[in-house]
What does this fold into?
Amino acid sequence: MAASLGQAVRHHWNLREDIVFLNHGSYGATPEPVLAEQRRWRDRMESNPVNFMKRVLPDALESAKARLAAFLGAGPADLAFVDNATSGVNTVLRSLDFQPGDEILINSHTYNAVKQTCLHIAARSGAVLVEADIPYPLSGPQPIVEAITARLSARTRLVILDHITSPTATIMPLAPLIAAAKAAGALVLVDGAHAPGMLPLDLPAIGADYYTGNCHKWLCAPKGCAFLWVDPARQDGIHPLTISHYYGKGFSEEFAWTGTRDASAWLAVTAALDFLDALGGLETVTAYTHRLARDAAAMLADAWGTEIGCPPAMRGTMACIRLPDRYAEPAMTSQMVMDRLWQEYRIEIPVLRFAGQAWARISAAPYNEMAEYTVLKEAIGKW
It folds into this structure.
């Protein structure tokens, strides 16, 4: 069934017909059946807001959370809905009691919003932000392990690891990194913004203390649907960003209600999981998208005479391909390249500077097909 994806399923999405959308990784794209379920929940809410908030929502949220938790290999009591992975990271960082001199360890591939949150926490608490410099491009996982473990110390309080890096689309070697962090006595927070729907997940088996991930990217849920998983041994002291009526009542109770909000994105996550099943399940979808991302990256690197940022085993449904050298000239900014690709070719794709080079990060979603990457190949070749 994997071969039947691509153009055959694109009609499920409301994407414009005249665009080449190769950037599912930034904000996702929600298929119409999932949007319809979200509208159904909104209509039900507005038909009687009091009844919905007081009598319908609590059980509906628990049901949605239980379905998502099962998909993630987790217990429902250990999972909480949040708006996005950045909110999940903020929740943990703002809940922990950092002391002057405590170290928070990130790396040079850490998502910028996470780094900025760490800088804010460090400025308020006196903690020290330590950044491990990971080389790029990568020939394998060992340079990552060496770079991060070299910066661990007796003062390391928290290590933040990406499951899949945002700027470089690299699957991180979590197992040895988490083991090293635990051996050093540090807590571990995994930013899994891109992992749900790209990789099979068993959250407790990962071994982190905290894990946050988005459902609006590769699970194709509505925007504003994400989760925070916390190890049961670490749930005391973890509070939502908004403190409300159930403060002190426990992890599940506090996160279940933080005030009036539209919870339809969370409730529609079940429709997103149903949609994934309708396409053949996670294994079928990722068989198609992983292969497409791999083949497209190889075709682009060959056409441009450049390289891919990391080996196939360290990539999923995204890949970073180095652009030709002329794109790394100071006068040619990333924004300039992205603007021209959009204005002249209607291509949506992120272009970034990393390690002194210009890189294009491609995404492969179920609605993509190889012909779209050929449009990108030719557009870059013409400039």
Q: What stands out?
A: Residues 192 and 213 are 4 Å apart (CA to CA). The two ends are 38 Å apart (CA to CA).
